[in-house]
């Protein structure tokens, strides 16, 4: 089996970039004890359930995928905004316990040395993020509990709507953002690692501006069932 060789890129992120990552609970330095890594999520569900106080495994899995979703969304944010992404081995993607707004939660530690410039062929990096970073974590969670893959994928997509809505409103970024947005949905990319085009199904050919403050989700993310959290704004369930 081909094994990817990783290079230490030593990219220096600006203070602004680091703060933007931090705003989505992605850190280049951990502020707590590392609990598990991206390649052993399958064995971490009891820890996730304990920290989140989720009443069962599927709710704990969904809770964690919302946290991973912030990392994935920031990958595409960094791609469009700065032409940079994080490209480390999945075991270098680490998770630690922390507290936000009085609630115990899990944040992401993405070592800074694995940030690099985007590939000239941007579709290669879009596929890398979906196939090698997002999909494996979803597969691991589903190996441990009964939860719809659509629920987990939708936990990632919601963050992207706001990012690309703001990009499309920015004349300096609009053209590049629309190109990246097209690649995010590219059927040729999705068919490599997924049985369905989950993002296309989620969007239903609508633009980000059409989806803000709507019940765009097909499934419930169970946020309302996690102590300290509320129903998300995209929830399809009747309020």
Secondary-structure blueprint:
Elements: H1 15-23, E1 26-27, E2 34-37, H2 45-52, H3 57-82, E3 84-86, E4 94-100, E5 103-109, E6 115-117, H4 122-142, H5 149-168, H6 174-184, H7 187-193, H8 198-203, H9 208-211
Describe this structure in words.
The chain is α+β, with helices and mostly antiparallel strands. Helices cover 47% and strands 11% of the residues. It contains 9 helices and 6 strands. Helix 2 packs across helix 3 and helix 3 runs parallel beside helix 5. The termini are far apart. The model has no long low-confidence stretch (mean pLDDT 92).
Question: Would you kindly provide a brief summary of this structure?
Answer:
With 239 residues, the chain is α+β, with helices and mostly antiparallel strands.
Keywords:
239 residues, alpha+beta, four-stranded mixed β-sheet, two-stranded antiparallel sheet, 9 helices
Helicity level: 40-55%
Oligomer: single chain
Major β-sheet strand ordering: 1-5-4-2
Distance N terminus to C terminus?
Answer: 49 Å
Question: Radius of gyration, rounded?
Answer: 17 Å
Instruction: Kindly report the average pLDDT value.
Output: 92
Question: How many DSSP E strands?
Answer: 6
The shape, in one word, is globular
